[in-house]
Amino acid sequence: MSGTVGMIGGMGPASTLELMRKIIERSPARIEQEHLRILIDNRPQIPDRTAYIMGNGSSPVPLLQDSARQLERWGADFVTMACNTAHAFVEEVQKSVNIPILNMLAILADYIGRRTDTGSSILLLTTTGAIQAGIFNRYLDGFKLILPDREIQQNVIMDIIYGENGMKLTGNLSGNRERILEIIRQYDEINNLNLIIAGCTELGILLDNISLEKEVINPLDCLADEIVKQAYGLDRNQ
């Protein structure tokens, strides 16, 4: 019997749908009834994680903890979060429940560690909140993480995510995709990148199924792989 997946959703809603799509695509189910039971507590009311980290908003922790407890009551075997920046609070959320929370960034670090050597040049595209919290540095210690300069981070990356025509508000793919690809080209030319991390789920949606010379890693893909392995009891090497 397969395990029951719990998902703290709504950060944002499109990212929640994207994770569910990736889980379904990876499922070894042969018939409808063999697919996973997935419990989603879709909570777009959870305060913005970056705003809080930057000192401009309410803490998301109480609602993250409440959602995790709700999923545990509903019968989830483990909890997931389809938001990179929310993992700045993963330890606090874990303390609120007796079931494990799958840590997407720890899973990402394990994947990268098996794909490339320490010292590799990795372009990190993520929110300013995640950078400020240092969550990727915590899990990817030893790798050379390259960040966009402050102006590009604020005026381009954050605008792609949060701007009036950004992914969170409009889901605008075409215009925003070319902007993010230009940043990748620019930093690859300077740094001869080994990998690119799409370290925000909205950026992962933008870069999904794009063919580039350098590998783009979406942490959501790593999480979806691990969810399927754990829920179906598959060997990690499968």
List keywords for this structure.
14% strand; 4-stranded parallel β-sheet; Rossmann fold; 49% helix; 3-stranded parallel β-sheet; 12 helices; 238 residues; alpha/beta
Describe the 3D structure.
This protein is α/β, with parallel strands linked by helices and 238 residues long. It has two domains: 5-103 and 221-232, Rossmann fold (3-Layer(aba) Sandwich); 105-218, Rossmann fold (3-Layer(aba) Sandwich). It is built from twelve helices and seven strands. The chain has helices spanning 13-26, 49-53, 61-74, 90-94, 104-115, 128-133, 135-139, 150-162, 167-170, 174-191, 201-207, 219-232; strands spanning 4-9, 37-42, 78-81, 121-126, 144-146, 195-199, 215-217. The strands form two sheets. The protein has a four-stranded parallel sheet. It is globular and about 50 Å long. The mean pLDDT is 94.
Number of strands: 7
Outline: globular
Tell me the fraction of residues in β-strands, as a range: 5-15%
- Domain count, please report it: 2
Mean pLDDT: 94
Q: Note the run of SSEs as H and E.
A: EHEHHEHHEHHEHHHEHEH
Low-confidence segments: none
The number of helical elements comes to 12
Structural class: alpha/beta
